[in-house]
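Case study 2.
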Amino acid sequence: MIKAIIIDDEQNNIINLQRLLEKYCPEVIVTGSSTNPNEGIELIKSSQPDLVFLDIQMPEKDGFQVLQELNLYDFEVIFVTAFSQYGIQAIKFSAIDYLLKPIDIEELKKAVAKTSERLKHKNQNLQLQNLLHHLKESNNSSDHRIAISSLKETRFVYVKNIVRCESENSYTLFYTDEGETIISTVPLYEYDEMLSVYGFIRCHQSHLVNKKHVKSLLKEDNYTLLLYDQIRIPVSRNKKDLVKKALI
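Prediction:
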């Protein structure tokens, strides 16, 4: 059984989520709830849940501020929000689950199933710690780490150490400046959105490149990016102008 609490400023949302869990995720037992973020903080401390369903947007404190007031993160979090852009990039960056209101039943079941799997190896929640660090150091991008979900683990890699990403069917291959290759179960297009603000260029349908590692743009039969490690990355014809502009 998964012991859970719900923190949401709308009582109707709490009731609705609890009913969905009872019907579709019977392994989750809701042991408490709160419409007040301050009371929610005390509830987390006193009840020591396995899982917290946490509304992002609340008066007084948002969901991120609730977490920032805690010192121990030995529980899992599934964020709940009515807005698709509010904090979602930071959440994705740390590979944390979230649900959009109104809650989709299949998405709820998937999120709970992933949480259940992580709880089998329960320890300090490094993904939450990475999220809070990301939010705290939002102006210091050189210190940001991205959570990369692989088949066996979640790896935390400094963005500045990523040379390039390559699509491999529904997987993404990460290549680091230390010569390591990490296989992610997340498709490339999701990383494109996350990493674009860090100077990564989608130069090809199958390639995403950190422009800090680009040595030159070769004007051969087709345009090619030459990296400092001598790897050559193709540039799609329709991406040529975008790549030129990004490298200036």
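The mean pLDDT is 90.
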